[in-house]
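AAA-like domain-containing protein structure dump, as promised
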Amino acid sequence: MKHRRGSRPAAVPEPGPRGWPGRGRGSSTYVQAPDQWRATTVQACGLWPFAVGTGTPMTGVPLGRNLLSGATLCCDPISWFQRANLISNPSAFVLGKPGLGKSTVVRRMALGLAGYGVMPLVLGDLKPDYVDLVEAIGGQVIRLGRGRGYLNVLDPGEAVAAAARLTGDARSQVLADAHGRRHAIVAALITVMRSAPPTDREETVLDRALRVLDDTHEAARRGAPTLHDLLAVLRAAPEDVRAAALDRGDRTRYDDVTEDLEATLIGLTGGGRLGRIFAEPTTTPMRRDRPVVFDVSSIDDAQTDLQAAVLLACWSAGFGAISVGHALADAGLEPRRHYFVVLDELWRALRAGRGMVDRVDALTRLNRQRGVGMAMVSHTMSDLLALPSEEDRMKARGFVERSGMVICGGLPSAEMPMLTSAVPLTRAEQDLLVGWQDPPAWNPGVGAEAEPPGRGHFLVKVGGRPGIPVHVALTGVERELNDTNKLWHELSRSADDLPSPSATEDQIRG
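structure tokens r here:
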């Protein structure tokens, strides 16, 4: 080909990422992904050119794949605290919009920790999200609700039997802890009933009445005492209780002092909005040697007072059993057990009534000393900061600040200022979380929505370290256990479509 003097020859096109462009030049419209294989450095040492790993922790429950490197991330608060020494507090706080998999992450941790010998304890499952999982791993399901089950708040549980196996100070401490726990839960229930705490004099009268009840109640013949028995002691007005009420020898004065307390106990024994859930003998005693879930999903969301009271009672029973287990382990009478406590839907518990924030605040401060790992789950920081008093809002914010790790799913951009005030996030990390909360795209081919882009995506943050973006993919077994939309699998049917009461089995199947 001839060129004019001074002109440059035409540039030869270079191949693109899919080959030489143009007709007949071998360009590929589809590049098939190569097969991926995994092996240890010993098995594939000649094919492993990397001298340094990705830095992703490999201690704990296999959570998912790192979105940047593809490496497996192993993560749970107990392993990172106990074995890896990566965090100073065995707790995790999980945040994210609904439907993106918050509970799924916690279930993955609970399932993996159960394999390590840690006992998952779900002390109040409000949906329920954990019943199928606990049943699958051979755990205990305790159902509570109106007409479904009772939880006697005066039942010392296994504390009395454990004290009989102990001696000296250990025995005294177990009995004292049981008394303090029962006194605290009765005072908390009174607070829920009244929307105000009992007075100092009423607290003293309650303490003295419980001690009299323990001394006079024939547990061997009649079982554990109930609130009915406590009310009977209050009405009988024994000398010790009257002295605590400062009645000055006047029965009329005693009745005036204890009238409000008696009225509240009547409400707790069946005459109030909390029903008889706490006044009857415990339906299903809790066990310490297996995973446990308290299924309280039958309580309607509108019954906020009842939800608050049941959650408080479940927490009291659960941590009471943990204390007994540790006392027996300290004495060498039982093996040491660690527990993974799940507080899901935390925002509902905090808003349920006064005293809830202080109760959770105490739990989050003492979990390390009690040998307990904890996972708290909520939707957004706004849920925690929407409490009525500034004092409660500051305490709720401390739940996130004190957590050993914070796991964030998709969150709206409006949450970023509140979240970054508790957890340092870079601009890139904030953009990642905001992108994950976008709604799913519409698929016109099938007339349905695709999966949300942020489902299963989470950012694991520990202090000021860079966050680890991870995708949690479920196995086939986990998909069955994690199905929270069971009631939506079957289409709605009218009454005309249902079989008649006199139809045979063959007609119903057909």
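The longest helix spans residues 168-194.
lmk if u need the other ones
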